[in-house]
Structures are given as C-alpha cells and as structure tokens.
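Inputs:
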Amino acid sequence: MNNTIETILKHRSVRAFTEVEIPQSDVDQIIEAAQAASTSSFLQAYSIIGITDPEKKRTLSILAGNQSYVKENGYFLVFCADLYRHEQAAEQHGVDITQTTESTEAFMISLIDAALAAQNAAVTAESMGLGICYIGGIRNNLKQVCELLQTPNKVVPLFGMAIGYPKQIEEQKPRIPKEIIFHENQYMQDNDILNENLQQYDQIISDYYKQRTNAKKNMTWTKQITNTLEHSKRLYLNDFIKQCGFLR
Amino acid sequence: MNNTIETILKHRSVRAFTEVEIPQSDVDQIIEAAQAASTSSFLQAYSIIGITDPEKKRTLSILAGNQSYVKENGYFLVFCADLYRHEQAAEQHGVDITQTTESTEAFMISLIDAALAAQNAAVTAESMGLGICYIGGIRNNLKQVCELLQTPNKVVPLFGMAIGYPKQIEEQKPRIPKEIIFHENQYMQDNDILNENLQQYDQIISDYYKQRTNAKKNMTWTKQITNTLEHSKRLYLNDFIKQCGFLR
C-alpha cells in the first residue's frame, strides 16, 4: 500500500485543533491541490473562501451551531457553488446563459465540482499531518453566511472545512459493509440481504460506541440515522437556493 | 512536497485506456478508499455500481454520448446519490423519513457524500499509476441509465468514472488563476479585477490550445465556457430527479 492510500484510509474527522496557524505556503499548496481536481466541462464552477478574520470565524461558528472547532483551528475554508464568473464571462461575449446557470444540472455540476476540489484539499492537508473536519452546519443559516461572506447571486456556500494541527485524535468509525454500498452491474434490491447486512452493521456500530464510551452509549447505525432523519432540517434551502439563482 | 500531493497535482483526465483489466484487489482498495471519505452526519448517502458486463458498458457508452472510453477501460464505476437504504432502516424503526429524504438538503448531502467518495477513489487509482476520467455524460439519459442499473426510488446515478491503464497521457489544462477562485474573508466582487484576471486566463488558455494543436485551435476560456453554457442541456433533470424522490 502506498503513502497516498495510507493517508486516505487513515482519515478520521478532527474536532479539536491546537491554535497554531497553518503556514501560508501550506494553505497555498492545499488550494493548488484543490484546483487540480477534475471539473465538469472545464467549468471550475466553485469558489473557495478562506476565513482568517477571527471575528468572522466566531460569527460563523455561531451560525454553524456553536461548534468550537469552527473558530478554533489552523485555517478555515468555505467551499461555494459558483457560476457568477461564468455569467460575467458570457456577458463579455454578449450571451445570456441564465437558462443554463439556473438549471438543476448546473447546480449539480457546481456541487460536484466543489466537493471534488474539497476532497483534494482534505487529502492534501491530511498528507501534511493536519486534521480536517467538514462543516455542513453552515447550511443552518445560509442567508446570514452569504451576508457575512458577501457572496453575489449565483454563489452558494455549501460547506466549510476546519483544518489544523490535531489536539485530539478520534477513533475511525467503521463504514457500511461493502456488500450494500457497492453493487456489481445492477443495484442490489434484495431487502433480505440489505437488512441482514444492516443488522450486522448495527452490531459493529453498537460495539464501537460501547467500547468508546465504556458502555454508556448504546446506539446502532439504523437507529442513529433514523433519529437524524426523523426531524427534517434546513427545509428553507429549496427556496433559498432558488433565491441565489439556482435550481429554478 | 510529499507523494500524495505530487499525485494530486499530476492529475489529468485520461480518455484512452489499454484493455487490460484492473486486478480485483486494486478495485477493492479503490472502493475501500472511497468509503473512507468524510460523510455528512455519518449518513454515507451514496452507492457505487461497478460495471463489469461488457454489454452494459457498451450501452452506457452510447447513453453517455458515444464516448469510447466508457466501454474501453480497465474498470467503470457509477456513483449514485442514495437514500434508499436509509428509508429501509427507518422503516425497521417504524419511522417515516420521507419529508427529510425528499428535501433539497438531503439531495445536497447525497451529492456531496458521493463526490467526496469519488474523489478519494480517483486519487487512489492515480496513486496506483492508473488514469481516470469522470463521466457526466450519463446524465444525458438518466432514465435509461436507471433502468439499465435497476436503481430503486431514492437512488440517482450522478456520474461515472472510467479507470484504467493510460494508453495516452494528455497535457494538464491550466486552472483559473487563484486570485479569482480563492477569496479571503469575503467574496471578491470587483468586476474590474475579475475581468482582468479572466483576460489573463484567456491568454493562457489560448496559448495552451495553440501549442497543443499546432495553432489550429483558437479558443479562450471565456469563449469556451460561453459556448458550453449558451445552449442548456439536460433540462429534464429537475423533473426526473423529483420522480426519483429527491428535491421535492
């Protein structure tokens, strides 16, 4: 197994960082690596906003649900879907591309482009010995996040990424059995096999939590995700993303 | 610079592969690495379908716009947004989570989860000396792709990935200047700076194409993306994705 695969398999989210800032040259390397990712039709339909202002970090951490590691880290990035510069570019050529940029397809392209770039950034940071944590919590209050970051129409902040020197390393959470996330040639729709695998996985996750918490936490995967998904969150997003000029 | 960063920066899409199949152990490693990526709220809201049946590859390549490298490669993966197993799991606990799974937020989570996993797969493959190419073309005919892969409700194939031993290595396309894709603390909305950078980038891309094609291709980035975005593609997607149980 090569170093790259080792780095990738060693991943776990880090939620406690030292206050040591990441050197600018490392940040530059992370951004360069992000930009090296594949991009749909060469569109590069995303932007990255680096947050260095402590006051903005503090505000973001509150907006993202009071997560301390949003303000206490070595660097903080926000990845955005971005078709703003494309509309500017088309305008230079006298072409209106709004019908395309506001389509579901364009939104999907932007999300995928942004996520591919982000994962390159994550792996790069981890290969340097840094830890990372994705922050979906910025979608709790996207209107305020947009105001804080002064994003124009056709730009939507999607998620943040806290990066820094780990203060505490957590254990890796076991993933879903390959048997039910990987399919060959066609989607495996046999619910007996699915449920059998979910049951096995529930046991693995239950054991994992028990071991980690001295038997205090008793939770399976199916129960955990049912709890998470039982109450809908962020239902304002459909309207808000339309307001930003996407998904119309 | 470590090996991982070198691998990431060396990326270019490969569109011509030898017919040599990738060993199963390498495919397994790629899938394991994909699964190691971060996932929102531990949901793991994606599936990966490996296509080994030559007839299915051939059909997919036609559906994706007659791209030869969809059928001629060492392995082909399809990454899907997937909340099917979550609905099954919640049902076991007697809870209806449809309001959540059909939300825009859930669709975003699934897309991001799938893309993070995919980029881990891409970097892993490239670290093994393999080449990759993302295939957005499967979104040309998603209904037929779903039928071919027999995906249930709450599963949407998002993009493919051709993997294999490169037969031909292409040059790397220069990326957008960091100055306009990276912003510090707030989105840079100065259109004079934007246009100046776009102009510089147009020159870089124009030079790149001229050099690659013996001056036959004369194209700037702003012109290229304007051409791409002038005519809307895949406008059926909004309706189709709703039919699949998302984005309602």
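DSSP finds twelve helices and five strands in chain B. Flag for discussion at group meeting.
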